[in-house]
Each structure stands twice: as C-alpha cells, then as structure tokens.
Design goal:
alpha+beta; Arc Repressor Mutant, subunit A; Dna Ligase, domain 1; three-stranded mixed β-sheet; 5 strands; 47% helix
Length: 149
Amino acid sequence: MQSRIEQICSDKGLKMTDQRRIIAQVLSGSVDHPDVDLVYRRATELDPKISIATVYRTLRLFEEANILEKHDFGDGRARYEEASGDHHDHLINIKNGEVIEFYNRELEAMKKQIAKDLGFELVDHRLELYATPSVSKEASDEDDESFQK
C-alpha cells in the first residue's frame, strides 16, 4: 500500500525509486517534524544502503514539488513536514525542541484584522511561537514521569 507522500508523488508524475519510496514512507509515518539526520536514521533502518546524499536530494525534490514544507524552528536544523491544505501554526518548546501544531480560530481572525487595519489583505502567513513550559506544566510532567517509573 502506498503512503500519502508516495501517492502525491505519483499524482505529480515524479519518478519513484525504491529509495525515494522508503523516504516517502518515513516522512508519511512521521508525527514529528524530522530533520535530515532523523529522516536518514529512520530510512536506513529500512534500507541500510540509503545514503545521506540521497536523503538530502529527495527532501529537496519533495520540497520543490510542494510535497514537503521546510521549517527553521530556531535550532539551526531544517525540519520537514508534509505540505497540506490545512493551515496550522506551531509552538516550539525551546527546552526540548518539541513542536506542537495548533489552530486557533480567534487568532486567525485577529491576523486578518491586523492586516486589514494596516490596509492589506492577508494572503498567507506563518506563525511560530517559542516557549518554555509553565512552572505548573513542568511540575505536572514531573509527577507523570515519577508515576510512570
């Protein structure tokens, strides 16, 4: 069975080698926003012959074909996610690098209104919030960890 990204590649007429298929499967199965090294590690678990150069070339190809979106979340690593028609924003936990996707209807309306107030029509945007866990969340997480041990 084809992964979502494999299907998109087929629909766009991209040539799919076995190694590209594996990279597409890795990306489709990712719930995080992997960087090149993580995609490479996951792909080589499935095919040890895949080179890091192949991963770089494939990610660039998928990005140029608008199959992937490339992000820089301030940690110096390009991170990737499947391009989708569903808009969402990101909150990045700067303590551990976790990326949380979210959508907020009120915030979306506010962004449009700000553009309108400044004499513009909003056509696109990207919002990234950089944060640290609140003290109460950290305490809750620590309680969860001690409970799980």
